[in-house]
From TrEMBL:
The keyword Cytoplasm applies. Signal peptide: none annotated. Its main location: cytoplasm. The lineage of its organism: Bacteria, Bacillati, Candidatus Lithacetigenota, Candidatus Psychracetigena. InterPro entries: aa-tRNA-synth_II (IPR006195), aa-tRNA-synth_II/BPL/LPL (IPR045864), Anticodon-bd_dom_sf (IPR036621), His-tRNA-ligase (IPR015807), HisRS-like_core (IPR041715), HisRS/HisZ (IPR004516). It comes from the Bacteria. It comes from Psychracetigena formicireducens. It catalyses: tRNA(His) + L-histidine + ATP = L-histidyl-tRNA(His) + AMP + diphosphate + H(+). Gene3D superfamilies: Anticodon-binding domain, Bira Bifunctional Protein, Domain 2. It holds the Pfam family tRNA-synt_His. Keywords: Aminoacyl-tRNA synthetase, ATP-binding, Cytoplasm, Ligase, Nucleotide-binding, Protein biosynthesis. Residues 32-323 form the Aminoacyl-transfer RNA synthetases class-II family profile domain. One of its GO terms (molecular function) is ATP binding. This is Histidine--tRNA ligase. Belongs to the class-II aminoacyl-tRNA synthetase family.
Length: 418
């Protein structure tokens, strides 16, 4: 049998894996500057959590979950997203009992059984950010601002933030009644998914990629909000204006998870196309109580890490070029390999990136490897002396054996090549 990674999954190798680290550390720093703290939760949860949290009629729960029974017959699901897990954690740990705003971020793989294509995988990564404990529109604005800061910190200038308000359960259910009635007359012209959704999840007909052009004549949800949701939406827009954040209202933006209410948003770039978001999020004021916790409003977003990498890389492939670092040590004389080995470990213990050769290869091919792997120095050990080469400048200097300590001090950053 030929072994291959399962369809829709990928191996991430250097230099991409190094690029991931660069991106992740930037995201982490930015989230922490905004006061968010890291949480880690399990990769799988009880299936019921996602059914209840995300909604029985959503595509995720209906068609996309990786669900299995463990040896004791319990139904478990690989997490398709993080918000439901975070909400479960919040209730389970009793954080809902404390007043105040709790702000968390997380990073990890998510699993959805979708048709793989560019930017869409069955195992993909989320960098998620969630704030719980306040229904203030300022918090919605803070999260949208974090989205903007995040993409701009990667020099992505060409992007669009879509926003919408889907109201509360009351104004939304009245709108859905109205929408359902109007759609009934024309639904025969819509795609198969829309014909199914019109009864199970009517709002999703609005964001159908195939049929959204048909929706121009339909009433707009944000024009049908109750006074309190309408005021909340106005305040979000006012806050965005205060921070000079550009947005575009998108009446078709309803999101595919049932926990949302009021503000929803997505960020798109031309690199991926208008219908492929880099990130998506919104407010979810009933999720915590729906999972048995004390009523606690929440708002958050998740950034598709794989997609962000794709955009950052296509926008600026040079971001992977990190400065040369460390030293590669070798000797053409097998009798000196012990010394090579000892010096390598000595330098590592002094905190320097150091590598030596474990194969009997020519010096020339080893220098090539060191150069390709971005080492700054190449140290060759001979019987009576050693030669240190700077791989950036090509400069070479010979040191006597007695000068070994001087070379080690120089390499570990505490001296220069004089
Ligand atoms: P979501 O829109 O389902 O939201 O996912 C967020 C982002 O994950 C998307 O914008 C996209 O970039 C990325 N994504 C989704 N599916 C895939 C896939 N199959 N392959 C690659 N990337 C993908 C949520 O999951 C919500 N939990 C977001 C949230 C957090 N709302 C409030 N807090």
């Amino acid at each position: 049998m030929e072994y291959r990674a399962p369809r829709g999954t990928r191996d991430i190798l250097p230099p991409e894996s190094e690029g991931w680290d660069i991106i992740l550390s930037k995201l982490t720093v930015r989230a922490e500057e905004y006061g968010y703290k890291k949480v880690i939760f399990p990769t799988f949860e009880h299936t019921e959590l996602f059914k209840r949290g995300i909604g029985e009629d959503t595509d995720i729960v209906q068609k996309e979950m990786y669900t299995f029974q463990d040896r004791k017959g319990r139904w478990l699901t690989l997490r398709p997203e993080g918000t439901a897990s975070l909400a479960r954690l919040f209730v389970e740990k009793g954080i809902d009992k404390f007043n105040g705003v709790s702000k968390y971020y997380y990073f990890g793989s998510m699993f959805r059984y979708e048709r793989p294509q560019s930017g869409r995988y069955r195992e993909f990564y989320h960098f998620g950010v969630e704030a719980l404990g306040s229904d203030s529109p300022y918090l919605d604005v803070e999260l949208i601002s974090l989205c903007k800061d995040t993409v701009e910190s990667f020099a992505i200038k060409d992007y669009l933030i879509y926003i919408n308000s889907i109201g509360c359960s009351e104004c939304r259910s009245q709108y859905i009644l109205k929408l359902g009635g109007l759609l009934k007359q024309v639904i025969a012209y819509y795609c198969e998914d829309c014909r199914r959704r019109v009864t199970t999840n009517t709002l999703r007909v609005l964001d159908c990629k195939i049929d959204k052009h048909r929706n121009a004549e339909l009433p707009i949800l944000s024009d049908n909000l109750c006074p309190s949701c309408s005021q909340h939406y106005d305040e979000v827009k006012k806050g965005l204006q205060t921070l000079n954040i550009n947005w575009q209202e998108n009446p078709n933006l309803v999101r595919g998870l049932d926990y949302y209410n009021r503000t929803v948003f997505e960020l798109v770039t031309p690199y991926l196309g208008e219908s492929t978001s880099i990130l998506g999020g919104g407010r979810y004021d009933q999720l915590i109580s729906c999972l048995g916790g004390k009523e606690t409003p929440g708002v958050g977003f998740a950034l598709g890490f794989d997609r962000l990498y794709q955009v950052v890389y296509s926008n600026n492939p040079d971001f992977l070029n990190s400065p040369r670092k460390g030293v590669y040590i070798s000797s053409p004389e097998t009798g000196l390999w012990d010394k090579v080995f000892r010096i390598t470990f000595d330098l590592r213990n002094r905190g320097l990136k150091a590598e030596c050769n474990y194969q009997n290869r020519s010096l020339k091919s080893q220098v090539k490897t060191a150069d390709k792997d971005n080492y700054e120095f190449f140290l060759t050990i001979f019987q009576k002396d050693m030669v240190l080469k700077n791989l950036t400048t090509g400069e070479e200097k010979v040191y006597e054996n007695e000068e070994e300590e001087k070379v080690l001090v120089l390499l570990s950053g505490k001296g220069d090549m004089s």
